[in-house]
Amino acid sequence: MWSRTVSKAKTPADLTITPRDVRFGRGGSYRRYWLNDDPIATAFYNALSVTFPKGEGFFIDSVRQFRDDVPPRLAAEIRAFIKQEAIHTREHVAFNRHVADQGYDTSRLEARVDHELAITRGKPPIANLAATMALEHFTAILAHELVANPRHLAGGDQAAADLWRWHAIEEIEHKGVAYDTWLHATRDWTRLKRWWVKTLVMLIVTAKFFRGRTVGMLDLLAQDGLTGARVKWRLFAYAFGRPGMARKVMGMWLSFFLPGFHPWNHDDRELIGLVDSEFEAARLASA
């Protein structure tokens, strides 16, 4: 049962990973509560965005370590993945400047990211790839829900909402790259070892993700004078009630632990088509 055989990657053969070089929000400013005048919703995306520049740099470095030892098609997908993530980094640096321009101090959030990344230094490259593979599943399921349910960004400042929708379709598009790289890098492992390691890593990543983003949101909200049990309840209701991002991605999160899991077991490319035409002129060569 737990042989060393690695299942062939299930990424669709006709999938194209295409970086879209777009700039958002350069000509103006966002409202303080740019998402539907809701401080809770705004804090969720602001806190998440603060993690992206350094986090996506970590993803790039982790996958890049293995690009010289992969089949040609996967090598091309890694190159496109790196292009996409580099542009995401640039755009979230710009978005985070808007957050700072509203008077928010994000230094504590950034220090937390620095601390989490410092833990990875000196670890074997395969460990960092495993963390990236798990976090990329996280971003992919959040991206799926963000595009599938327009309610999440309803009422948002247009440029900010467009940024998140653009980012989401590219996360869906490259959702199999880190996982396929992981499968190739662990091709000599038994299936049991691979499942055990990825399960442990995902559980650790999940705990750190929820704790880190909750602390970040509470920090930003406290700067607006929003503190106490009632605010924490509103956070819980936002995540698990309406619009319920955490509740709605739970099934996709659990699928990660199933035997035979692959991100493209759920082919949701139709969601890319809902948004892609808006950025057609910005499409770059994928490799």
Walkthrough of the structure:
With 287 residues, the protein is mostly helical. The chain has a single domain (40-282), classed as Ribonucleotide Reductase, subunit A (Orthogonal Bundle), CATH 1.10.620. 63% of the residues lie in helices and 0% in strands. The chain has helices spanning 39-64, 72-101, 107-120, 125-148, 158-173, 177-185, 191-222, 229-240, 245-248, 250-255, 269-276. It is globular and about 55 Å long. 36% of the residues are buried. Residues 1-7 have low confidence and may be disordered. This is Metal-dependent hydrolase. InterPro entries: UCP07580.
In short:
InterPro entries: UCP07580. Helices cover 63% and strands 0% of the residues.
The count of DSSP E runs of length 2 or more, i.e. the number of strands, is 0
Supply the number of structural domains.
1
Tell me the helix content: 55-70%
The H-and-E topology, N to C, reads as HHHHHHHHHHH
- Give the strand content: under 5%
> Globular, elongated, flat, extended or rod-shaped: what is the shape?
globular
Mean pLDDT: 94
Query: Which CATH C-level class is it?
Result: Mainly Alpha
